[in-house]
Amino acid sequence: MPLLLKQISFIQYGPVGDILLTLLLAGLVVALCINITKRIKAEKRAERADAKLEESYVDLKMAYDEVSNTKTELFEKYDELRENKEQMKEVAYTDYLTKLPNRVAFMDKLENEIKKNYPGEFFTVIDLDLDDFKVINDTMGHLNGDAVIASVADRLESSLGDEDFIGRVGGDEFIILFNRLLSRDECEKKAVEIMHIFSVEHFKAMDDKDVSVSASMGVLVVSRDNCPSLQALTRNLDTALLVAKDSGKNAYRIFDNPMEQMMSNRVKLQAEMREAIMENQFELYYQPQVNLKTNKVASFEALIRWHHPQKGLLFPDEFIPVAEECGLIIELGKIVLNKACKQLSDWHRSGNKVMIAVNLSAKQFRDPFLIDYVTDMISEYGIDPSYLELEITETVAIEDVNYAIKTIEKLKQFGILFSLDDFGTGYSSLNYLKKLPVDNLKIDKSFMEAVTIDNEDKKIVETIISLAQALNMLVVAEGVEENAQEEMLRRMNCNKAQGFLYSRPVPANVASTLIA
């Protein structure tokens, strides 16, 4: 600008100079306007940039706040999930009723014990199963049953040490782990202590009712120097419990090698039994039931026998328990029904109007296809159903009285007769007896052994006969081996008798000669 003024000062005044001056000033004004315009635009751009920056800052702050909130929510959700996981784990590993560890938790504990390496040490496992607990549920109701289970759990838990571990692994089954039992003698002493709990104490049902319960136990002593796998351990424990149950319940058995051999034999027998079914190696033998008024054979009880290729003739007690255990009992039951109905048809066609009684196992009686199969056999062989008698024990009947009543009534609609077997050995409840729609009552043979010399047995037999006849039932006495027993039964107005006095169980061709 000073330079410009300098140049202006050299311009001569006059018309030309005025023009030049005017032009010069106009140029200055234009330049100044342009400069101002640029500055204004720059300032506006700066303002817009500032506004955009401010907007970006606001967006960034909002994004930051959102991320911060999300992070907080994530931490809260994580804490919630962790808490839920702990709760779910507790539910998954705890028995709802007793609050004891359940099967999953106990097996985890057992697997950890197996992995520990403490040379020279032992641990002991006891599998405890309450005997016939279903009867308590059925007779007293499941709420009372649950109360008794909880009472048993409390008593067992209170008898254990701090290092011991107990779990409820089934409806009426508990497993106990003892970490510091160093010898078989210590183990046996502890088993006796637990059995003593059940022999001297009552357990509490609802309303403080006292209930007596017995238990069977399988016991396993495990050396940490040579621990079996979890599968082998539980299998051996099951074996010991099974032997305790087979010995009559209310007992304990400590696992040993002979038991392992016994289980091996059972597995082998199962395979042989399956083959025997395919090859028709089973035969029915028949034991006569004599009418005490006419002294004639009125009926036969069908009893299964197995013609084993190597072992010869096997009796039911040698294979029926295994059949029940492995699920073949229903198939064997069908074989018995089939053969009995066929034999009944043969005898009737030859003019011998006798009856045949067939035993039903607990599993067969609960088979949903039982009624269909029985009626199919009746149709196939064209027999009069009133000559077919089905038998169940009172123990089977009492397991589920309502089911028993419904099933018996359905079968009786076809004309089939029903008997209650082994009466007097179970609960012998008059209440249940009058509800069950059975036609015949069979007195267990255990009462016959001393009926002629034991006045109490005599009174029991006499009472059973009077009771049955008051309920319009016929009575069959089992196990009759002496004439004196027969005479006494006849004086008591017993209807039929069965036992070695008349005949042992014999094949069908021999049985035919008894009714010819």
What this model shows, in words?
It is a single chain. By secondary structure, the chain is of the alpha/beta class. Helix content is 54%, strand content 18%. The strands form three sheets. Strands 8-9-11-12-13-14-15-16 form an eight-stranded mixed barrel, surrounded by four helices. Strands 2-3-1-6-7 form a five-stranded mixed beta sheet, with helices on both faces. A two-stranded antiparallel ribbon has the order 4-5. The chain has helices spanning 2-9, 15-93, 103-115, 133-140, 142-158, 184-200, 230-246, 257-278, 320-326, 329-349, 362-365, 370-381, 394-399, 401-412, 430-435, 455-470, 483-491, 508-514, and strands at 122-130, 165-170, 173-178, 203-204, 210-211, 215-223, 252-254, 282-291, 297-308, 312-314, 355-359, 388-393, 417-423, 440-443, 474-477, 496-498, 506-507. The mean pLDDT is 85. It contains 18 helices and 17 strands.
* Structure summary, number of beta strands: 17
* Secondary-structure content class: alpha/beta
Number of helices: 18
Strand residues, percent: 15-25%
Strand arrangement, major sheet? 8-9-11-12-13-14-15-16
N/C terminus separation: 156 Å
Low-confidence stretches: none
Largest sheet: 8 strands, mixed, barrel
Choose one word for the global shape: elongated
Q: Please state the CA-atom Rg, rounded to the nearest Å.
A: 45 Å
Mean pLDDT: 85
